[in-house]
Amino acid sequence: MRSAVYLVAIWSVGVGVALMVEADLGVAPNDVLNTGLRDTLEIGVGTAAWLTGLAAMALAWVLGRRPRFATVMGSVIVGLSINGSLAVLPTPDAMWWRISFVALGLLVIWAGITGVVGADVGAGPLELVMLALMDRKVGISVARWGIELTLLALGLALGGAAGFGTAVFAFATGPVLAVTLPRAAARLGTDLSHPTEVACAGP
Question: How far apart are CA 75 and CA 68, in angstroms?
């Protein structure tokens, strides 16, 4: 069940990202960076997500949270989900449609993050960094805000797509996850307080 939750959740994150990209009212801070990389390197948003995911996994490893195989695969899947969803989603023109896309995108991403971390099959790259910071006694809201604001600053420097949706995501994600993650972990029987391990992890 946990593996099924993880696969659905990680794909959902990509769908939520694509909804916010199409709305063009501001994307999540990480995706401000990804859209900046898209424009700078002339690559897809999902492809840019692979690059930022690789960097996040490296940072999490340094901080003590080693990526599992599922984390690597999850990064690949979310990039495919973003690119695939962008290929089929319409681009809304009316403001109410664009706002609806942002709201739906936020809900889908938050649900996806909760499912990915709660399943504890292998947290997403940014969630792995968040958990590594939590291991060091950093509160979940502070950890998430710190990550989002750092990514936002980098994305703005590259001319990424920031806006209303970016602000909502940056300041609401920490409090939302503080409520949803403990409940998801309890329901799925997982313990998020211990460092993530991989099957072949060394000392």
Answer: 11
pLDDT tens profile 29-38: 889 999 999 9
CA-to-CA distance for 49 and 52, rounded, in angstroms? 5
Q: What is the mean pLDDT of the chain?
A: 86
Q: Answer whether residue 124 is part of any domain.
A: yes
Position 172 in a domain: yes
SS (H, E, C) the chain: CHHHHHHHHHHHHHHHHHHHHHHCCCCCHHHHHHHHHHHHHCCCHHHHHHHHHHHHHHHHHHCCCCCCHHHHHHHHHHHHHHHHHHHHCCCCCCHHHHHHHHHHHHHHHHHHHHHHHHHCCCCCHHHHHHHHHHHCCCCHHHHHHHHHHHHHHHHHHCCCCCCHHHHHHHHHHHHHHHHHHHHHHHHHCCCCCCCCCCCCCCC
Q: Which domain holds residue 58?
A: 2-188
Write the pLDDT tens digit of every residue in 70-112.
889 989 999 999 999 999 999 999 999 999 999 999 999 999 9
Residue 113 forms part of a structural domain: yes
Q: How many domains does the chain have?
A: 1
Residue 22 lies in a domain: yes
Asked if 71 and 125 touch (Cβ cutoff 8 Å), the reply is yes
